[in-house]
Amino acid sequence: MSESAMGVRERRKSETTRSLVVEARRLFSQHGLSGFTVEELCDAVGVSRRTFFNYFASKDDAVIGVAIRDTEDELDDAFVAGGNPEQDALSPTLFDDFVQLLVDRWNRSDVDTGGMRGVAESIKHEPRLLARMMELAMRDEAMDIALVERREGLQPGDLRAASTVHLVIAFARPSAMEFLSADNTDPLDEIFRRRIAAARVVLN
Question: Both 54 and 80 in a single domain?
Fold first, then answer.
């Protein structure tokens, strides 16, 4: 597939994903998690049930805003291409490249910040969503560890891959919380890199 065709496909996917998330959160805020169906969500957005399940594993995931991970993702492919699995040492840019990967994913998702803040507050009263968020976080963590292993040519279970992912996530989670706070005006990228810069000072 050409780069331009890939760009069109990704934009269309991003737009559909965003529309489903925004509408799912609107229905959730008005009716609660059990107050609407996937069919009602699809009708509101103008997509088929089959299309919905190409994007999300469940209605809960649409409310949370976590889509199915694409096994043919150009951001992941670019990250993997930046490594050199033939060398003995890890790529010198591994950590920074993984940080950039998370930032690029966030930017591509075109997050509805206001809606996400509302959901974050509502989730406190929906244990099912909170449990699902934790499950998805563990899934994505495992997939990213495997991605680092593939980029660096590491054997499954190599702690260097897990450490890379765990370290970056340790900065990503509080950065996202700060970004979503009601009084924040800074972009996520800036918040994220500010925390990492502070850690470098401590560790050096």
Answer: no
In angstroms and rounded to an integer, the radius of gyration of the C-alpha atoms of the chain is 18
pTM flag (> 0.90): no
142: left (phi over 0), alpha (psi -120 to 50) or beta: alpha
Q: Mark 85-111 as b/e (b = at least 16 C-beta within 10 Å).
A: eeeeebbeebbebbbbbbbbebebeeb
The number of domains in the chain is 2
d(CA 48, CA 84): 42
Same domain, 75 and 62: no
Given this model, what pLDDT does residue 152 score? 95
Q: What percent of the chain shows pLDDT beyond 70?
A: 89
CA distance 146 to 138: 13
Can you read off the two tokens belonging to residue 30? 């008005």
Q: What is the mean pLDDT of the chain?
A: 87
**Token pair recorded at residue 113:** 């910040």
Q: Are residues 81 and 181 in the same domain?
A: yes
CB atoms closer than 10 angstroms to residue 160: 12
The answer to whether 7 and 14 are in contact (CB under 8 A) is no
Interatomic CA distance for residues 37 and 27, integer angstroms: 9
Last-in-domain residue among 35, 51, 68: 68
| Helix axes of 159-180 and 94-109: crossing angle, nearest 10 degrees | 40
| Angstrom distance (rounded) from CA 196 to CA 171 | 7
